[in-house]
Amino acid sequence: MHNNLKNLPVGHLTCCQICRGINLQPVIEMGFFSPCDSLLTKAMLHQAEVTYPLNVVRCRDCGLVQLDYAVNPKELFYPEYPYRSGITETLRQNLHNLSTRMIEKTGLAKNSLVVDIGSNDGTILEGFKNNGMRVLGVEPTNIADMANANGIETIKEFFTLDVAKQVKDKYGPATLIAAANVFAHVGDIADLMGGIYELLGDDCLFISESHYQLSILERLQYDSIYHEHLRFYLIKPLMRLFQDSGLTLVDIERIPNYGGSIRVYARKGLNHNPSEEVLKLLKIEEEGGAYQDKTYEEFKMKAENSRRALRSFMVKLNDEGKSVVGIGCPARSATLLQYCGITPDLLPYIAEQSTSLKLGMFTANTHIPVIDEAKMFQEQPEYGLMLSWHYAEPIIKSLRARGLKSKIIVPLPEIKIFE
Question: Which of 86, 185, 256, 319 could join 123 in a cystine, given CB atoms 3.0 to 4.6 angstroms apart?
């Protein structure tokens, strides 16, 4: 079944993660960065930090855009991993809508088994459970304990072929397997795909959501490049990946999550056909240059220009004595801060909501403190740098409604100031 797929070694990768081709185009070298969610405690500020190369390459054979270095997953998704999917209302709604939409679209019968890979705090599965499905999460970090405490049964492990076999023995085959924002994160790709194939019932569906490479190009989202994202998907490489794994890419939707993602439907078996939507989007990719060297040369140039412009702008505000703070501390902010050289002299703190697991910590490499947003509302700085810029509209609306008067800087795709 997995004719070519192999698990990625930890460290430097010399061939394509999907097709094993070696004809790789260098896209952008960002530098040596700390992993994006490795926040530091105050005590850790006095210790050496581990950094890894962050370089993007593109396979000219199958079209996959990917990192050329894999960090050990145990280091990226460590037990105290500070991300919770249910924490922001926008995301919580998106994830609950996902379950409703899936049930409508697939006609899932009550009592079907739904498994979520990288299920985090169980937010997606809540929606399925409320609709009468049997649900099971697989999540390697301590956030699994939260999900279990909230009544969403969760196995605290990485999803592998062995885990899939254990689940199948105990619960039977899954009617639906979901993986939102983990499908591009897994280095053990042969194990992952093998587990999905093993656990799925015949003709049943695997549904995943990932950052979409076309959206990254269109909106210059170089900040979504970080060590957790090993692959940035387009349709051709996805078709190849599924085919090598005994599945067929049957449908696709573009969704707004995380600044532009795709929701992908793959059915077990190779005797299915892709929908009109898949063929339509493939044509858009091809016409938009997603498989051409030139597009990636331009992307690199624009990213470098943006980096210089943002750093100069922040330095200028600082020279003029303006007060500026950061707003929101998503994973992608680590790339933006490190790549653009934004340090505590330019950004004295980042304001986060009071429920965030990141409060009291410091950003990796750049050492900016993350504190309760109450201070920002009290101080009313002249400017706020919106680090969750991909959700700028709803966040700005909410901040204004709660009385924030600061001008807001949206850094990408180009610098915009909202008075």
Answer: 86
